[in-house]
Design goal:
- The chain has 242 residues and is an alpha/beta fold.
- The chain has two domains: 59 residues, no CATH class; 180 residues, 3-Layer(aba) Sandwich (Rossmann fold).
- The chain is built from twelve helices and five strands.
- Strands 2-3-4-1-5 form a five-stranded parallel β-sheet.
- The radius of gyration is 23 Å and the shape is elongated.
- The N and C termini lie far apart (61 Å).
- This is ATP-binding protein.
- GO terms for molecular function: ATP binding.
- Keywords: ATP-binding, Nucleotide-binding.
- It comes from Aquimarina algiphila.
């Protein structure tokens, strides 16, 4: 009878419940009441589904780094507000549809921090996508050529958190500017975006170009956004010295 029950659990894809019940039988735990056993099996199934969902979300996000909030170094020279980052771990900014803008010179940890926040969001069940922004523009250009552009833009719009890294390495031409405007417009007031850039925010207007569009984009991005301005020595150079 137990063998049949285990088989049915597998067929129903109740893998957490199957594993828990198998363990219970092997350990010969007969001291569970019926209520306790049912609660144990249901909790095991819930935990299994939750963990597998986090794994799927993390894999789909395609982060640049495997990063965790706990790994962030709160060196005073980096100008990182620990209390601010603790608030980020609660993902209230996603619930409130707010953006985070991370700036700082090369190597100071912008991408790592953005990825760490993204991992935290995945752990709470949010859909996250990480892009190097220039690779994203190249992908959208190809999508226009093969007719899948609207599908790609729709996929980006549905992400609870969009991370755009290395913004500002190249000035935007008209096609990139229009694509960027469309992405930001679709997400404004609906979803959250993290942008990481070597350039201070004051320089973004020039990078975007075309005053009217730049004004529209920055008004939607910067208004009420959380700002993180990293300082200090390059973390990559620092690790190399160590």
């Amino acid at each position: 009878m137990n063998a049949q029950t285990l088989l049915q659990m597998k067929q129903l894809r109740l893998y957490g419940m199957h594993r828990a019940f198998s363990t219970t039988l092997e350990a010969n735990h007969g001291n569970y009441t019926n209520d306790e056993l049912i609660a144990y099996l249901l909790q095991s199934e819930w935990d299994d589904k939750h963990n597998r969902r986090i794994e799927r979300l993390t894999k789909a996000a395609k982060f640049r780094y495997q990063a965790a909030i706990e790994e962030i170094i709160y060196d005073p020279n980096r100008a990182i507000d620990k209390n601010q980052f603790i608030r980020f771990t609660e993902c209230e900014f996603i619930k409130n549809k707010e953006n985070i803008l991370i700036t700082g010179s090369t190597g100071v940890g912008k991408s790592f921090i953005a990825s760490a926040i993204g991992y935290q969001a995945c752990s709470q069940g949010y859909r996250v996508k990480y892009y190097n922004i220039n690779k994203l523009f190249a992908k959208l250009k190809l999508a226009k050529a093969d007719g899948s552009y609207l599908k790609e833009v729709d996929r980006i719009e549905k992400q609870d958190l969009l991370i755009l890294d290395d913004f500002g390495l190249q000035e935007l031409d008209n096609n990139k500017r229009q694509a960027f405007m469309e992405i930001i417009e679709d997400r404004h007031g609906k979803k959250s975006t993290i942008i990481a850039s070597q350039l201070p925010i004051i320089s973004w207007h020039q990078i975007i170009g075309e005053q009217t569009i730049a004004d529209a984009i920055l008004d939607r991005l910067v208004h009420s956004a959380h700002r993180v301005e990293l300082k200090g020595e390059s973390m990559r150079r620092k690790r190399k010295k160590s």
